[in-house]
Fold:
Amino acid sequence: MKQTIVLYPGAGVGHIVPMAELARIFLHRGYDVTMVLVPPPVESSDFGAGVVERITAANPSITFHMLRQYNEKLENFLCSIPRHRLHSLVIDMFGIDAIDVAAKLSVPVYTFVPSGASSLAVTTQVPALLANRKTGLKELRDTPLEFLGVPPIPASHLIQQLLEDPEDELCKTMARLFRRGMETRGVLVNTFESLESRAVQAFRNPLCVPGKILPPIYCVGPLIRQGASGSENVERHECLAWLDAQPKNSVVFLCFGSMGTLSLEQLKEIAVGLDRSGQRFLWVVRSPAYIDDPKRFLERLPEPDLDAVLPEGFLERTKDRGLVVKSWAPQVEVLHHPATGAFVTHCGWNSTLEGIMAGIPMLCWPLYAEQKMNKVFMTTDMGVGLEMEGYKTGFIRAEEVEARVRLVIESNKGRELKVRLAARKKEAETALEVGGSSYAAIVRFLSDVENLGKQLDE
Structure:
């Protein structure tokens, strides 16, 4: 009889999608998989676009179970599975309270990190840094901070909540979250070892967190969403037909993720830069953010009125070389299209891996969460992107948009970047193949759980 692996992702596209891909791997290895979902506290644009419905439809072999009362319901659900059939519980990095449930039931529990090993190396070391401080890291501004396994990180580039006073409740909560997430039996990370080898090695160094032995790290990625273009039941998006008519490697794709919204002024500035650049472009435009009302940040935004948010005459002037899509485009299919030559990205980890798997040079425009850290890793150790310098001030001028898209499409520097991406793409593909590093990490994880079960039964 098959054993069941229970996956407990966090809310949001960036957490559910890679865990669904992890579920596919476990299914192929002969396990039953159940994903336990918790509805978000508010109806957000991130969830509101039918993300769960699309993932469920695309994965009929995965059982989905919706929880509405968190730990108590999780415990009841786990108890409904015969103990001899319950293989393990894999929780999202933000689901640390489930560790207590697993301990109560003697279920092996592991952490899943949908972001990369480099950002994990930083957040693993930050709690010790905060413990020795009387004031917040915010006052350090752009002072470079040294962490094992990664290049120097400007203090301002850490996750916002970690910059506050160490006694601030939100700061303490985030530090506790990152500290306790490393207290499970092991950590599965959505990366491949050759991409972030320095960071992976850091976890094995006793100086990473002095006085603490860290759990095994399993690099099981890249786990990215599967393209839908090959399915007969999925209607092909209109933007793909437009790309079919464009020359190879000629189009700049601009997309800022499921929650990446910009101000009205910034949207207009991008439009001016694209207009002046003369380059072909495919641009996903979402309605401007509620930047003056943080309480409304997660509200579902309406589709944008392009005539209202873009400069007068822009759509008409650029109609022969550009396409603006409202709110959403099939990013994986766009990135893999032969016409796509560059990707302007918010540096979300899923998007970063999707760009690497497509071999597309990236222009890095981080917006929130760990994205500024990702920008550092992408432009240094990984060598897969060039930064949009204006991100540091929170506003990127039309002149930089114009210059950067020309650089990556037309210049030798852009061509050199594409060569590096081709090499990274090959590394990623090799990691996933039988005998590759990520394939071996999955085998090692399953073996470790099996051996642990034998020890518990003795």
